[in-house]
Amino acid sequence: MISLTPKDVLPEDGTAGTLVGRVWLPQAGGPAVVAVRADGVFDVTARFPTVSALCEESDPAAALRATGGERIGDFEAILANTPPDSRDKARPHLLAPVDLQVLKAAGVTFAISMLERVIEERARGNPSSADAIRKEVVRLVGDDLSKLKPGSEQAMKLKQVLIDQNAWSQYLEVGIGPDAEVFTKAPTLSSVGSGMDAGLHPKSTWNNPEPEVVLVVSAAGKIVGAALGNDVNLRDFEGRSALLLSKAKDNNASCAIGPLLRLFDQTFSLDDVRKMDVGLTVTGADGFVLEGHSSISKISRDPTDLVAQTIGPVHQYPDGFALFLGTMFAPVKDRDAKGEGFTHKRDDIVTIAAPQLGKLVNRMRNSDECEPWTFGVGALMKNLAQRKVL
């Protein structure tokens, strides 16, 4: 069971930034959009029925600061009531900080993770084959492609060399080619927040967390803020076939975002995201500890490029979208058998952290053991209408 305090999840500067979240209100039978401030958690749903609506403001941070709202409690109490095992259903608990935004993800945006995807593909989802294949791929491609600009003339020359050596891969195509991989991670409203269980498909035997920054983008394509995310990945499913991407990525509770959305203001900007280091710690009940990090400064495509490849004349998002930026983290530390690398075990505690965004903490369970997702868009609209806030 997870036990969390504000110090465990808030940014290093506490509530100095403009922090927005969502809280389940039992008395309302639905979620509230909240501002998390030094003096408590304030319900601003009457002004902003959804986080999506707030993000459509010309200056979301200023709009939130100008809205007082009704105080519903201390962040400490609401956070403490969030883990499912100890939750009092009559009291508020924390949710993921996005709602109507489409949940999108960019893949293969770092050289290291690109190489691991090639390895997954060649191993056909078999972790025991990965170590030997990893050495062969690094021999052919090298282990540092961070200076290679996707779509550039240099990248296209490398592509031809690899094709000539029968070493080309669909993952290299999206890693160094002109077009980014952007896919739909999960259904709208299905993400889980900090303190909640995150899900793994019960048939998966080779999987890992993916610590990422998640940008929140308006319908006009404006990046308005960021949160942390875990783009939970099944390496065996995707390794068997890239056509299994949806099964590898989209399962109950397999999309975690939180702890809060930090809006861009005078304390936090996109440039802060560009130089952000995202840390990861996995702590197992077996005593195993895995640590890693993902540095956005080493991303192959700028966040604005990924956003531009997601939204535009050929694709619109009327309620905005949340975009996982990808990760450079690829776990190779052996957990059990030598050469088989890392895979999750039941009750692993995953902590994803960045100084300006706080910590996203989740316990790993099989997706069919996690709380079922039952509150969708229809339920949200009906609830907001009943509360007369639409």
Description:
The protein has 390 residues and is of the alpha+beta class. It is 25% helix and 27% strand. Strands 1, 2, 3, 4, 5, 6, 7, 10, 11, 13 and 16 form an 11-stranded mixed β-sheet that branches. It is globular, with a radius of gyration of 21 Å. The model has no long low-confidence stretch (mean pLDDT 90).
Notable traits:
390 residues, eleven-stranded mixed sheet, 18 strands, 13 helices, five-stranded mixed sheet, alpha+beta
Short description:
This protein has helices at 6-9, 51-55, 60-65, 75-80, 111-123, 130-141, 153-164, 170-176, 235-240, 245-249, 270-274, 303-308, 377-386; strands at 18-25, 30-37, 40-43, 70-73, 93-95, 102-107, 181-186, 197-200, 207-208, 211-217, 223-231, 233-234, 255-263, 277-283, 289-295, 321-324, 349-354, 358-366.
Q: Number of DSSP strands?
A: 18
Distance between the termini: 37 Å
Mean pLDDT, all residues: 90
Shape descriptor: globular
Binned strand content: 25-35%
Q: Biggest β-sheet: count, sense, barrel?
A: 11 strands, mixed
Share of helical residues: 10-25%
**Based on helices, strands and strand pairing, what is the structural class?**
alpha+beta
Count of helical regions: 13
**Oligomeric organization of the protein chains:** single chain
Rg is 21 Å
**Unreliable spans:** none
Keywords: Hydrolase, Metal-binding
Family: Belongs to the FAH family.
Protein name: Fumarylacetoacetate hydrolase family protein
InterPro entries: FAH (IPR051121), Fumarylacetoacetase_C_sf (IPR036663)
Topology:
Elements: H1 6-9, E1 18-25, E2 30-37, E3 40-43, H2 51-55, H3 60-65, E4 70-73, H4 75-80, E5 93-95, E6 102-107, H5 111-123, H6 130-141, H7 153-164, H8 170-176, E7 181-186, E8 197-200, E9 207-208, E10 211-217, E11 223-231, E12 233-234, H9 235-240, H10 245-249, E13 255-263, H11 270-274, E14 277-283, E15 289-295, H12 303-308, E16 321-324, E17 349-354, E18 358-366, H13 377-386
Parallel strand pairs: 6-16, 8-18
Antiparallel strand pairs: 1-2, 1-5, 1-13, 2-3, 3-4, 6-7, 9-12, 10-11, 10-16, 11-13, 14-15, 14-17, 17-18
Helix pairs in contact: 5-6, 5-8
